[in-house]
Structure formats: C-alpha cells, structure tokens
C-alpha cells in the first residue's frame, strides 16, 4: 500500500493542502480532512482494522466535499465553466468510484457468507455431524473466484488514474482552482485506500492437489515462519493458513480438534472484519452518491 500511494503522490503531486486562512470554512474543513487522510493512507499496514477506519474516513471526506459543492460560491464558479473537459472527467470518475465501491461490497458480502457457512460446518463437525472437507473446498473456491473480480477492479482503478493531468489550470479563479485541486487529491487518496482493500481481499495462490484443495507450499511454509513474519500477515492470510491446515497432513502432532479450534478463532475474527468492511463500504457508497448528485444538480442548472 505504501509503495502504491507513494507512486501516486509523486505522479499527481499529492501534497499537504494549504489554502489561505481567509478560505471558506467548508474549504478549510476539507483541507483538514485531506491532510489527515493523506498522512495516514500510506502509513499503516493493510490490516482489517486499518481498512475499516480508512473507509469511514473516506465517507467523512466526501461529506465535506458535498458541503463544499453546495456552497453558492462553488456553484457560481462551476456554472461559469460549464461543459468543460475536467467536469466530464470528474463525472466519469465519480461513476467509476460508485461501481468500484458496489462491486467491492458484493465481494466482501460473498466472502462473509462463505466464512459463516464454514463456521457453521466446523461447529457441526465438532459435534460429529458431518465431514468438513466439502465446506473447506467451498471456502477456498470462493476465495479463488475473488481473484478475477479483484483483477477487474484493480484495472478499473488504473483507468481512473488516467484522468489526472488532463485538467487545465484555473488560476484565474482562485476558489474554483482550490476546489478542483481538493477533488483531485480526494480521488488519489480514495484510489489508494481501494487499492489496499483489494490487495487485502486478493486470495493467496491456491490450486488443487490430488482430490483435495490445499494452499501451495509457499503458503504452507508461511504457517511455520517466525513471529515477525506472522505479524506481517493480514487476517485473511492467517485464516487461509488455519483453514488449509485442517486438510493438510502435517508432521506435527496437532490434533484435528486443535486445528478446527484455530480455524474457528480466525474465522470469527474475519467475520467481524467483513461486517465492518460492509458497513464502511455502504457508508462510503452513500457519500459518493450524494456527492455525485450534488455535482450533477449544479451542472444541470
């Protein structure tokens, strides 16, 4: 995540936003939010808690943007520059953001459902009611299906990246230039957060082995790495390892019950993360939608 955000920052001139103290309070509030998000979006590892915080932070950011767009000063400035290329670019980008947010929420919901089904199967297995191999296979299959969907979403992020550098300088109108600069930086930060989220959701390499599914040896080896390496894993990595270990023939003396307990602990943590990610994505989607509607209303007058 840090590498991606640094690349974006250099390419698009992401900076600490600073406008005159006489700027409108809405502009200053958005400036503060951008500085806050910009200083954090590449600073932390992409774990579930960080991503949830990032999504809710983005929702707050777009609420500030909506307030800024609804200012009479902003609306008047936008009306004076009607049907310009940068307006179409921003509208196109906002639509892509909505699609990306919706598709990502669907992916999270699908994974949450798979996690809950596996949790239920493991509980029944402990009670001696059924074999769990089929349910584990189903979980891993769902993870593999995510790979193509995430690849499409990452491609969409790259297409949004192409709008940068196409906007003319509007220095003759200070407030409008400030608004456009703020919008562009918001888009950069949004792209960085989504890139981190999609990387978090992206499945580890999975492939069939004999009649079973298992993680490739690289992932299996992760399970026996040092504590330092383990801390670098996100919650999905740890869950993948715990789930796959149930099917793997290990030289260790871990009982099946111990492996199931480990998997259940990780799945419970992951279920909570997915629940929060869903809420964050839903909140962000509403904020993005309101911002787009405000922008469209301004341009329709």
TrEMBL record:
- The scientific name of the source species is Gossypium hirsutum (Upland cotton)
Annotated region (Disordered) at 28-47
Please give the InterPro entries that the UniProt record associates with this protein: BPS1_pln
Instruction: Indicate what this protein is called per its UniProt record.
Output: DUF241 domain protein
| Pfam family for this entry, one | BPS1
A GO BP annotation: root development
> What domain of life does the UniProt record list for this protein's source?
Eukaryota
